[in-house]
Specification:
alpha+beta
């Protein structure tokens, strides 16, 4: 019987891959930490997008409830310093066709053109949509302009038989759903 050194039992031929995780390990300057955190967030968004677009065999994003999109939107727009108007385009079974940013604005407003929203719906062959925008202030209550825009987009898309399921406003880690609030 051969006596072996206990350490030999746990030795490996190659070192394991070590993935940096923000907040762990050696202290780094704030700029470097932000870059690392941004990389982690970007990777999380990439994974979520793969799931949304049904690129995993066992997952197909069907938007049966707005909360499916809320976490993604919060991650995507939490730190964006300007307003962004985006749309989840869905087929008639509410499966995701595409999520896209249609308009960008300033700190407190974005110009949104319903005719362009309708044009894009027709190009993609959408049967339904989930419209979204962010409030960089973090205050998610809809303005009078937000309410008018929602009604105008609903009326415009209704003419081409595209249903607007909801309008979600995100601000930081908070959100507001027009459908949940009975505003649609």
């Amino acid at each position: 019987m051969k006596c072996t050194n206990q350490m030999d039992l746990f030795s490996v031929a190659e070192p394991a891959d070590v993935y940096p995780f923000p907040g762990k390990g050696l202290a780094v300057d704030p700029g470097q930490r932000k870059k690392e955190e941004d990389a982690v967030i970007a990777e999380a968004l990439r994974i979520i997008e793969k799931r949304f677009y049904g690129k995993y065999q066992d997952f197909s994003a069907v938007f049966s409830h707005p909360h499916i999109a809320v976490d993604y939107l919060k991650m995507l727009y939490a730190t964006v310093p300007y307003e962004v108007f985006s749309v989840f385009w869905l087929d008639s079974q509410h499966r995701l066709i595409k999520h896209e940013e249609l308009f960008r604005g300033t700190l407190d407003s974005a110009s949104v053109y319903p005719r362009e929203v309708a044009r894009r719906a027709l190009e993609l062959g959408a049967g339904a949509s989930l419209i979204c925008h962010n409030h960089p202030s973090g205050y998610v209550s809809p303005s009078a302009a937000d309410r008018r825009l929602t009604q105008c987009i609903q009326e415009t898309l209704e003419l081409i038989e595209v249903k607007v399921l909801d309008h979600i406003i995100v601000g930081g880690t908070d959100h507001m759903s027009f459908a949940e609030q009975g505003l649609m």
